[in-house]
Write a structure and sequence with these properties.
By secondary structure, the protein is of the alpha+beta class. Helix content is 61%, strand content 12%. It folds into two domains: 1-17 and 40-51 and 220-253, Outer membrane efflux proteins (OEP), CATH 2.20.200; 53-219 and 254-376, Outer membrane efflux proteins (OEP). Strands 1, 2, 3, 4 and 5 form a five-stranded antiparallel sheet that branches. The relative contact order is 0.15.
């Protein structure tokens, strides 16, 4: 639409009429024909040459705004895909937690049965049985409670992919994938890989073009016009030389006084450019921060996961030792319960760390643009 202003406006206006004029009109010459046919085929052209760059700047502004809108759309799509991935991995993390609790419930059922058998044999107390039953039922309750959060994530995934939540389901699958290795490249590559940065950059370009449009208003408007065609009282000689008509002309208009309006518009455009430049700089800094945040999170989570895995192994060993001591009659069931609770807590923490690592990986992919780059912007 903006580029169309580069070209002249052309119109054609054919007409034909049968007319009768009054013989009693002023200045009527006796004997003059009062009934006649008038056929006209004429065209007009008008053009404002872009001498001061107003049209060129308008095209530049429109192009930048169109690309900024396309980048905004890409950023929304990236955010939705990232949210979908986050919900998916959170749900799979809950599946891992569910499997862990189910396995723990089976182990606690064996411990409970062992305590009951020892109580019947007179080598355990009723208190041991109550403790084992309490621990078993509490773990079963935790296992059931996970279903609420999992259903919510499943429904969120259904909404994000555009299907009714009531008709969508995903079978349980513990999170056992390997963490992705993410090449980050050089920091400057973010300027081409983040749609929000590209959007801010192009809005800055549009604001700069608006300054040029405002400055062009200080110069005169020049319009070139022309027209031509044929007019005749009969169709037979319509296109003959004597029937030709034409006109050429030009005009210029210069605004001499507007009370400072043009100056104010130009100043406003400059301030708007400063605002967009600041927004662009903020977008770049935020992008670098988001990348560094997720890189730091992944690095720290990896260190924490190593320590947590060692804690899990130690807790399992402690549980095994305490169980053997209880079976041998050298300790109370309270020691076994304490060891089992510590083991479950550490195993759940390790599973949660894995989920957080996947979530940070998704956030890092999003911070790096998710595979998007400026080559995907439309060309105008």
């Amino acid at each position: 639409m903006s580029r169309s202003n580069y070209y002249p406006n052309l119109t054609v206006s054919p007409s034909s009429s049968r007319d009768r004029v009054s013989q009693n009109r002023p200045n009527y010459v006796r004997g003059t024909q009062t009934l006649y046919t008038d056929t006209v085929i004429a065209g007009q052209a008008s053009w404002e040459p872009d001498l001061w760059g107003s049209v060129r700047r308008t095209v530049e502004e429109s192009r930048s705004n169109a690309q900024a809108s396309a980048a905004d759309l890409a950023n929304v799509e990236l955010s939705i895909r990232a949210e979908l991935a986050l919900d998916y991995f959170q749900m799979r993390g809950l599946d891992t937690d569910q499997q862990l609790l189910d396995d723990t419930v089976k182990a606690y059922q064996k411990s409970y049965q062992l305590t009951v058998d020892r109580f019947k044999g007179g080598v355990a107390t009723d208190s041991d049985v109550a403790l084992a039953q309490t621990q078993l039922q509490s773990t079963i309750s935790q296992s059931v409670d996970i279903g609420v959060a999992r259903a919510q994530y499943e429904h969120a995934i259904a909404t994000l992919i555009g299907v009714p939540a009531s008709s969508f389901t995903l079978a349980a699958a513990p999170l056992s994938l390997a963490l992705p290795q993410l090449p980050t490249g050089v920091p400057s590559a973010l300027l081409e890989r983040r749609p929000d940065i590209s959007s801010a950059e192009r809005r800055t370009q549009a604001a700069n073009a608006q300054i040029g449009i405002a400055i062009a208003a200080f110069y005169p408007t020049i319009t070139l016009t022309g027209g031509g065609g044929f007019e005749s009282t009969g169709a037979g000689n319509l296109f003959q030389g004597p029937s030709a008509l034409w006109s050429l002309g030009g005009s210029a208009a210069q605004l001499l006084f507007d009370g400072g309006r043009r100056r104010a518009v130009t100043e406003q455009a400059r301030h708007n450019y400063d605002e967009q430049t600041a927004n662009y700089r903020e977008s770049v800094l935020n992008a670098f921060q988001e990348v560094e945040d997720q890189l730091a999170a992944l690095r720290i989570y990896q260190q924490e996961a190593v320590s947590q895995q060692a804690a899990v192994l130690a807790a399992r060993r402690s549980t095994q030792i305490s169980t053997n001591r209880y079976i041998g009659g050298t300790t109370t069931y309270l020691e076994v319960l304490t060891a089992q609770a510590a083991q479950l807590s550490n195993e759940r923490t390790a599973a949660d760390l894995t989920t957080r690592q996947f979530a940070s990986s998704v956030q890092l992919v999003r911070a790096l643009g998710g595979g998007w780059d400026t080559s995907q912007l439309p060309k105008f």
